[in-house]
Specification:
The protein has 69 residues and is an all-alpha fold. It contains two helices and no strands.
Length: 69
């Protein structure tokens, strides 16, 4: 039996890949929405937090899309 990371089978990793990919895209979309709302309400600290979160989740989504994670 072929094993992936720390005893997890390769099939389980391949099955979880689309789930993690969609989760990161969903989180990026939610953070983008939070950014728009925070800017509209004039909440600068929340806007910065949402912008950073959006950038990080978008980077993770891109890494999953390109298959590097």
């Amino acid at each position: 039996m072929e094993e992936g990371v720390r005893g997890v089978s390769a099939g389980a990793v391949q099955a979880a890949y689309p789930l993690f990919s969609m989760l990161s895209v969903l989180c990026a979309a939610v953070c983008g929405r939070m950014l728009l709302v925070a800017e509209r309400e004039g909440l600068s600290s929340q806007a910065w937090l949402a912008a950073v979160s959006f950038g990080l989740w978008s980077a993770l989504a891109a890494l999953y899309f390109w298959g590097t994670v």
